[in-house]
Automatic annotation (TrEMBL):
The keyword Zinc does not apply. Keywords: Cell membrane, Membrane, Transmembrane, Transmembrane helix. The keyword Transmembrane applies. This is Branched-chain amino acid ABC transporter permease. It comes from Nonomuraea harbinensis. InterPro entries: ABC_transp_permease (IPR001851), LivM-like (IPR043428). Residues 1-22 are annotated as: Disordered. It is a multi-pass membrane protein. The chain crosses the membrane at residues 30-47, 53-72, 79-98, 104-124, 131-149, 180-200, 231-251, 263-290, 302-319.
């Protein structure tokens, strides 16, 4: 090869460090994910049943927030009615288990499909509305959900709700009930995060990002706004429905009062605090949703809502991009310190 050819090929190729950086980043992410998964598998054997239950609920909320992250963090739409999709999945599973006595695993795909279709229908307003107008429409969905569930008493159990038997661990597993429910939630959460990661790296994910960043530019590039906005609602609802289904397995009881309007607001606060547009954001947000309200109750039983609101303000002041962004900045600072040392 001539010298000029070598120079040309070198000029056309990226520097070696830049070419390897994405590969190293991906390997690092997989290593971190593997360590976290190993810790998650190890945890239920070292904790008391109540703490195992708390971690199980963190996984449930993480799946719900994963769907909300797709809608808000990646598609740029807002929803104050995500609790309605969560409730749809929970009641779909409960009704099938209570009235039809279906196996609990069979309820998962049906709950996902019900929530997905509901998201498609309710995603229609997203085609024409945005911002506060869209937020009001989704809030209305959460508001009329509770009286609607109470109205069809023969199916939903009305105000009394439906009591269900929790999934029993197989004899071969050697697990206690709380451990078995934890591993069911962990398996669903891992599958949901892998699905979301694949979705966001695909053509659909790139289209959602284009819609989020600039709708006019996205439309000029050939992105169908109405199609992808509706699809974002449907995918978001599906993840919430899956979370609601697992919630039914874990709690063994559903009632209209389990899904108040404040649930939707809390979920939105959770994903904003956790970090929009980040795969770690739903997990951090789920930890916030699970533990901060109870912490607020312990600090002041008379006004836990005030303490909860103040804690949200404090977190957002310290971490404007969410806890995921704060963790990323802390990791970068640690790397710079180690390199200097």
């Amino acid at each position: 090869m001539s010298e000029s050819t070598q120079v040309t090929s070198r000029a056309g190729a990226p520097p070696r460090g830049q070419a390897q950086a994405p590969g190293r980043r991906v390997r690092r992410q997989w290593i971190v994910a593997g360590v976290l998964l190993a810790a998650a598998i190890y945890a239920p054997f070292q904790l008391v049943p109540f703490h195992v239950f708390q971690l199980t609920m963190v996984l449930v909320y993480a799946v719900a927030l994963l769907g909300l992250n797709v809608l808000v963090g990646h598609a740029g739409q807002i929803s104050l009615g995500h609790g309605a999709f969560f409730a749809a999945g929970a009641y779909a599973a409960a009704i099938m288990m209570f009235h039809w006595e279906l196996p609990y695993l069979a309820t998962l795909p049906v709950a996902a499909a019900v929530a997905f279709l509901l998201g498609l229908v309710l995603g229609v307003p997203a085609m024409r509305l945005r911002g506060l107008y869209l937020a009001l429409v989704t809030l209305a969905i959460a508001i009329f959900l509770v009286p609607l569930l109470k109205r069809f008493e023969e199916v939903t159990g009305g105000s009394m709700g439906l009591s269900l038997a929790k999934p029993a661990p197989p004899a071969w597993s050697g697990l206690a009930e709380d451990q078995w429910l934890y591993f069911l939630a962990l398996a669903v959460a891992v599958a949901a995060f892998l699905l979301a990661a694949g979705l966001l790296r695909s053509r659909v994910g790139r289209a959602l990002h284009a819609v989020r960043d600039n709708e006019i530019a996205a439309e000029v590039m050939g992105v169908r706004l109405s199609y992808y906005k509706t699809l974002a609602f449907a995918w978001s609802a599906m993840f919430a429905g899956v979370a609601g289904c697992v919630y039914t397995w874990v709690i063994g009881f559903v009632s209209p009062d389990s899904f108040p309007v404040t649930l939707s607001i809390t979920l939105l606060a959770g994903i904003v605090v956790g970090g929009l547009g980040s795969l770690s954001g739903p997990v951090l947000g789920a930890l916030f949703v699970m533990f901060v309200p109870s912490l607020s109750q312990d600090i002041n039983e008379a006004a836990p809502g005030v303490i909860f609101g103040l804690l949200i303000i404090a977190v957002m002041y310290v971490a404007p991009t969410g806890l995921a962004g704060l963790a990323g900045r802390a990791a970068n600072s640690l790397k710079k310190t180690l390199r200097k040392g």
